[in-house]
Each structure stands twice: as structure tokens, then as C-alpha cells.
Amino acid sequence: MNTSIFTHSKLNLVLLLLALVAPFVLYPVFLMKVLCFALFACAFNLLLGFAGLLSFGHAVFLGTGGYVTGYLMINTGITPELGILAGTVAAGLIGALYGKLAVRREGIYFAMVTLALAQLAFFFYLQAPFTGGEDGLQGVPRGHLFGVIDLSDNLQMYFFVLAIFLFGFWLIQRTVHSPFGQVLKAIRENEPRAISLGYNVNDYKWVAFIISAALAGLAGSTKTLVFQLASLTDVHWHMSGEVVLMTLVGGMGTLFGPLVGAAAIVTIQNYLSGGELGNYIHIIMGAIFVICVLAFRNGIVGQFRKVLKQNF
Amino acid sequence: MSQDLILETKNLIKAFKGFTAVDDVNLQIERGAIHALIGPNGAGKTTVFNLLTKYLTPTSGALLFNGKDITARKSADIARLGIVRSFQISAVFPNLSVLENVRVALQRKEGNSFHFWKHERVLNRLNDKALALLDDVGLSEFAHSKTLDLPYGRKRALEIATTLALDPELMLLDEPTQGMGHEDVEVVANLIKRVSAGRTILMVEHNLHVVAKLADRITVLQRGAILTEGDYACVSADPRVREAYLGVADDEPAAPVAAVGVHSSVIAGVGA
Prior knowledge:
The complex is a heterodimer.
Chain A: H1 9-21, H2 28-51, H3 59-75, H4 80-102, H5 107-127, E1 137-138, E2 144-145, E3 149-150, H6 154-176, H7 179-189, H8 191-196, H9 201-227, E4 229-230, H10 237-250, H11 257-274, H12 281-295, H13 299-311
Antiparallel strand pairs in A: 1-4, 2-3
Helix pairs in contact in A: 2-6, 2-9, 2-10, 2-11, 3-4, 3-9, 4-5, 4-9, 6-9, 7-9, 10-11, 10-13
Chain B: E1 5-16, E2 19-25, E3 28-30, E4 34-38, H1 45-52, E5 60-65, E6 68-69, H2 75-81, E7 83-85, H3 98-107, H4 127-136, H5 152-165, E8 170-174, H6 182-195, E9 200-204, H7 208-214, E10 217-222, E11 225-230, H8 232-237, H9 239-246, H10 257-260, H11 262-271
Parallel strand pairs in B: 4-9, 4-10, 7-8, 8-9
Antiparallel strand pairs in B: 1-2, 1-3, 1-5, 5-6, 10-11
Helix pairs in contact in B: 3-4, 3-5, 4-5, 5-6, 9-11
């Protein structure tokens, strides 16, 4: 049962207010980047934190969403909400296929299957004619939302991205606290027992995988519109690793952990890449990962919670 | 013979790379009985359980439930048919509340288990039923505790409540009193006796006091094969059973007690 203050509606309200004010204080594109990665990490956390499944190929869903949205925006002139919807559905479909194969295995084998399938997709996207190969899809138009609101304005785009993030975040929260989520937690806690109660556990894992993949796709589609770019970076296995890092740094299995983790990692990356430490970025990220795993197993939010619990 | 059999195995065999763990076992479980499966360590009792519930696939042989062949069914399907098992190590969901443990079992028949868009409060309508089941096993006061914090004996009681939530026709209990203190054993034995009304129970059990108290019929396994069957008096008097547990022939005076453990003394005591 989640009774901590982190699900408290007051905290939600404060965060929402902050999100509404933020673009007037901070650079909107940076905030949008944080929101996209936060959604990506939240989607990933649904699998890792609540179903106990470590996918090591989640970049493929982020990237697929991006490519599909980018391609459609450039070539068909559809409105951005439809472009994003198409990207999300495409990622969900690939998730359905990959998930079907992957949930047949557990633990490290599950991770390896997802990694292998993601690599397959990476090399496909590298060669496929519609992805632009090494160049990626550049100059993706943001278009007009519902054909009316001009998204080339960063502030308007920001509120659109915020709305998408809130929808995704709400859906994940609901999934975790749904009848389905209950079964998912039972499977995570004791899989043989869940089977003995008559649950076909692979079907539940599969549905969780599809939801997670589709939401990762939603994050990727949105990201492509923000940066007007879909590139191989998003399907590379580095990206799959990065989302693991974000989730663990923030706190896996907590609702706000991935959000905090994504914000922390994106901030650090932005800060470092601009300064003279830019060449050491991977070393520094690696060190952060090692420190987190060794010292804060519960991540930032998990640690914060623990301290709060002990002192109040 | 007009026996009413709920479960039957026909020439059940499980071989692991040259080692035959279950060797041509023909079990017949009568409806309404408490049937105990006993035998020395490594006799294949738990393997039989795993075969009956398809956690393992038999090398050959057939499983019949109510006369229907279920050999090809999956574990979850077998549970849905009404054969629900417990495990040797207590099988609870540690980070769910005690109430949620039972409720997750009740939830299956609601048909909303894939509804990820609904709030979990729709499950609250099952709370009364779950509480009644918890009350049955004396756990209602712990309903909202985290399961992790329950003492071992109570976890096993919770496991039985969760199993009962599915209202199974046949309950398979794998060493329900294993690792328990004397008082808990008594409590759980009484509980099993009570819930056996109107259903069939097949149990693996090491504690022969419990077996003597509960079982209507006993099957003794040794090295994967059925050694003998019958009621407690008949089985405990069988010299082959004593030999299986003691590791020596009945007429040899000095039994290697240290190698045999507690069961030997019980068997020998009853047999003498």
C-alpha cells in the first residue's frame, strides 16, 4: 500500500503549480527535454518497479515513436497530435511483438532478449531508407496543434508537452493502482504463487510491456517534435542504459523517482556538455551510477522517503 | 469398483537426465478425503506435487481430474479447474497487506484483472468476503498489516485463507506445518481439519503426528515409487515403511538413529 506523502494530493498540486510557472523562469526547451525523459523513465519504471521486469531495450520504443512521428510530420503534413498518436501506436505494436517473445523468459534472459531485439531494430533503422540513416530525420515541423495552435512557439509547445506528460504520468499511476496493478504486484512478489491462484502471468506481463512500450513511444514522439529531430541516438543501446540509470538514480518502484532521476540526469548532462568537462561526461555518469548503486540503493526519492520515515 | 475419484495419476513418470524422480506412480485420490503423501527425504513427494500442478511436465503418464485428462493443461488452467496448491516455503505476497493477499485471489473471478484504467477501489467490494476468510483462520485483526511482518505460522494460515478464497475442489498442501513451533502445528492441523469439510485435500507432510491426526488415507513414497498405501494403522505397521524410514530391516536391533531424524522414533513407536 502506498500511503507515503508522495502520493499526497497536496504535493501533486505544488508540483503542478511549479510546472506551470517553470517555463517563465527556465528555458522551455530544457524543461521539455526533462519532461520527455521523465515520461520515458516513468514508462520504463512501470516494468521494472512494478512488474519486476528489467528491459534493456527500451530505446527501441522511444526511437520508433520518434521516427514514425518524424516521418509522418515531414511527409504527410498531418497535425502533430495525430503524428504523436501514430508514433505511440507504432511503439505499442512493436512492444506487443517484442513483449510476446520476451516475457517467455525471466531475469537476465528477459533483459538479454530485449537487448537483442532492440539491437535488431537499431540496425534496421540504420539501413532503412525512411530514417535518414546516420543523418536522422532533420527539420521535423512541429505543425499546428489541432490545426490551430502554432507549436513553433516554445511556450505553447511547452504546455502541450506538459499535458502529454501529465496524461502519461496519470495513466501509469492509474495502472499501478488498478485491479491489473494488483495482479502485477502479486506476480512481482511471488510469481509461482500467482500462477497457483490461476493467473496466466505471462499475459499480465505482456500487457504491462505493451503499456510501457507505448508510453515510451509517446515520449519519443513528443521528443522528436520538441527537437524537430529523430536520430539513431534514440534507438541506440546507450539510451536503453540511460533510462535504467535515470530510474535507479531517482528510485525504482516509486512514482516520482523516475521524474526526479530524469531531471537530475538531464540537468547534469546539460551542465557538463556545455563546460570544459564535456569530454568526461561518460566517466562522470558512470561514477554517479556506481555511487548510487553502492550507497543509495533506493535512489533519491527512496532515500528521501526513508529519512522522512525515520525522523517524523 | 464404484470409487468416486477426484484425481488419478496413471503410470506417472518423471525422469531427470537418467535419474527417475517419480517412477510409475498410480495415485488415486478419493473425493472428500484427506490424503497424505509421506516418505523419506528425496522420495519424490514434492516432485509429484509439481507434476500434478504442471509446474513440471511429466516424462510420461496421465493426470485425470474428475475423470478428465488434464495432462496437457498449463499450471494456471489447472488452478482454474479447481486444483489449488500451496508451497513448501510459505507462499504469500510479502509487500501486499494481509487483506490484499486474500483479495488478489478473490479478484480473479471478478474478470477485471486486466482493467488497468480502473481505480483499485473497485476491488473494495471484495473486502467483506476477504475479511470473512481471514476471520476463518484467525487473522482478521491483522487485515491491514503488511504481510512481511507476520510471524511464520500466521503466514501459513494466510496462505490457507488465500487458497480457500478460490474455493478449490482439491487443495494440495506441501508440508503445511514445516518449520513451525509446536503450538503453531496444532493450530494449523486443526485449521486443515476444519477447512477439509466439503473438499478434498492432498498433503505432503513430515510431521507424523499431524498425519496420524488428519489423514484418512496415506501413500508412502520411496525412491519415486509407491511403497504402500492404506490408513495410518496399516501403514505404520508395515515393516517396509519402517525400513524405508530407518534404513535397516525391522529385525535388526540397532537403528542408526542419527541419520534418520525425528520421524523414525515416531514410526518405530507406533509400530512397536
